[in-house]
Amino acid sequence: SFSADEVIRKRLLIDGDGAGDDRRINLLVKSFIKWCNSGSQEEGYLQYQRMLSTLSQCEFSMGKTLLVYDMNLREMENYEKIYKDIGKDEKIIAAAHEKISECKKQILQAKRIRKNRQEYDALAKVIQHHPDRHETLK
């Protein structure tokens, strides 16, 4: 009653990241049953060694999965830190833009003041060429 896609989907869900854990567990169960039903001591020892080997593979796979999980947690923390740093940098950049805008306004004002002073100086030079009011009235 199951379609091939459903079987594959269930196997992938059981198998996790595709490391073959499902197959290893099935092998372990089969080895255990063979070991229980083994007639000779030699056959029992062989099945025992197979079970140890399969268990070792499962432990290795589990250890690898835990290391990947820990690495992913550390990466997540690292990305969160980077995200916070970017937020701080954006605030610093916004503040710098604001300061630049304020400085531009101050430069325009300083240019206006300088222009006025130059005009005052030019008028003062022209006025100095004429006699003062007291002399003119005489």
Automatic annotation (TrEMBL):
<comment type="similarity">
    <text>Belongs to the THOC7 family.</text>
</comment>
<dbReference type="GO" id="GO:0006406">
    <property type="term" value="P:mRNA export from nucleus"/>
</dbReference>
<keyword id="KW-0175">Coiled coil</keyword>
<dbReference type="GO" id="GO:0006397">
    <property type="term" value="P:mRNA processing"/>
</dbReference>
<keyword id="KW-0539">Nucleus</keyword>
<dbReference type="Pfam" id="PF05615">
    <property type="entry name" value="THOC7"/>
</dbReference>
<comment type="function">
    <text>Component of the THO subcomplex of the TREX complex which is thought to couple mRNA transcription, processing and nuclear export, and which specifically associates with spliced mRNA and not with unspliced pre-mRNA. Required for efficient export of polyadenylated RNA. Plays a key structural role in the oligomerization of the THO-DDX39B complex.</text>
</comment>
<dbReference type="InterPro" id="IPR008501">
    <property type="entry name" value="THOC7/Mft1"/>
</dbReference>
<dbReference type="GO" id="GO:0000445">
    <property type="term" value="C:THO complex part of transcription export complex"/>
</dbReference>
<protein>
    <submittedName>
        <fullName>THOC7 protein</fullName>
    </submittedName>
</protein>
